[in-house]
Amino acid sequence: MASAPSIRPAFSSTSAADFISVDRVRLYPYSGAVKVSPFRRLTSYSIACAAVNAINGGVVPKVDDRARINGFESAGLRVAFQGAPGAYSEFAAKTALPGCETLPCRAFADAISSVERGLADRAILPVESTMDGAGLRNYEFLLRHDLRVVQEISLFVNYCLLAMPGVSPAELRRVISHPLALAHCSRALAQLGLHLREPVEDTAGAVEMLRSNRLLDTAAIASPRAALLYGLDVLADGLQDDSWNVTRFLLLASPTSLAAAMRPKAAASLKTSTVVAHRGGSMSVLLKVLSAFSRRSINLTKLEVLNSASKEDKSPVFILDVRRKGMLRAFPHVLYVDFEGSPENPKAKEAIDEISQTAEFVRILGCYAADTNIYDLH
Ligand SMILES: O=C(O)C(=O)C[C@]1(C(=O)O)C=C[C@@H](O)C=C1
């Protein structure tokens, strides 16, 4: 059986000089000062880094690559995200659009409405995590609003246990964080004897709460960057139960913005996100969708089936029909389909026309540069 991760001060927040600015992406220097037990270091840190490196062809992408991939002029753009400064979403935004300004929002709905009201240029939403299996989150915001997906970014999420400076692990009685972060670290927290767990809105919000209330018996799960930002100690890192923990985020823009109108550079490989809604016969619709793309040799990068019967509250899926004066329509069955290429490609157009004859409704959610990189913040 694996040994429990040991917990002891790893590095204090005063070692800020070891890091470069929060606008940069890099691994933090890995010194001989062991942050966690060798076991955990090996499983979480080394394996995850090796996997990141393998996937990225041996290179952890740097933010400078971003402009090349997407061709966006990002300085001066404002990106709305849900959470407090220092949340993973904020770092994802800064990695996707180097030099951008960020706008912290209380709820996802506020981030969306900031873009709709012209207070922000983009909203960023986490939509899936390798630790949650196939499930998609936050798609309701995509479907109910008239915004376009203009960019994707995948971030390696390294969870750390943070506490007020000088607090020893033995003094900790409870841990607070985003519910997913608590769930993703459940086994490690049990091994550390931290059974009292309280969810808060986001990881950085937990850190902020800890700091402003000077909670000496409480730890927060968040990123090492949040520790730096709020001046907390990192007691352990690589806390996630699966060493491979990647969250995919989508960036949304108003349909009238330049980003929505602009096609990524011709050299970039494109990806299109769509939603197909229908009233029944899931299997036959699914087969027709698959056949429409496969006969035209168009690759799918994602296919998710969502039925209201399988939802906890059995509610239908609401989709804004942008062509019908913004009418919200309810559907019991929905397929999310991401395919390679642009919807303007004649073959893709044919496939979508064919699917539209079977389905009740098809909406293109956006076409953007496919970014298969996994960015590592450490
Ligand atoms: O709480 C944060 O820091 C977030 O950015 C949100 C979020 C998420 O909702 O997926 C992002 C990544 C982590 O897996 C945990 C939480």
Proportion of strand residues: 25-35%
Secondary structure category: alpha/beta
N-to-C SSE string, H for helix and E for strand: HHEHEHEHEEEHHEHEHEEHEHEEEEHEE
The CATH topology name of the largest domain reads D-Maltodextrin-Binding Protein, domain 2
Q: How many strand units?
A: 17
The Cα radius of gyration reads 22 Å
List the total number of helices.
12
The distinct bound ligands, ions and cofactors come out as:
prephenic acid
**Strand line-up across the major sheet:** 2-1-3-10-4-17
Taking the sheet with the most strands, its summary is: 6 strands, mixed
The CATH architecture of the largest domain is: 3-Layer(aba) Sandwich
What is the CATH superfamily label of the largest domain? Answer: Periplasmic binding protein-like II
What is the 3D form?
Answer: globular
What's the CATH class of the largest domain, please? Alpha Beta
Q: Compute the average pLDDT.
A: 81
Could you explain how this protein is built, in words?
The protein is α/β, with parallel strands linked by helices and 378 residues long. The chain folds into 3 domains: 13-57 and 158-244, D-Maltodextrin-Binding Protein, domain 2 (3-Layer(aba) Sandwich); 72-157 and 247-253, D-Maltodextrin-Binding Protein, domain 2 (3-Layer(aba) Sandwich); 264-369, Alpha-Beta Plaits (2-Layer Sandwich), CATH 3.30.70.260. The protein has 12 helices and 17 strands. A hairpin with a 5-residue loop joins strand 13 and strand 14 (327-331). Residues 1-69 have low confidence and may be disordered. The structure holds prephenic acid. Prephenic acid is lined by residues 83, 87-89, 126, 129, 157, 178, 180-181, 202-204, 247. This is Prephenate dehydratase domain-containing protein.
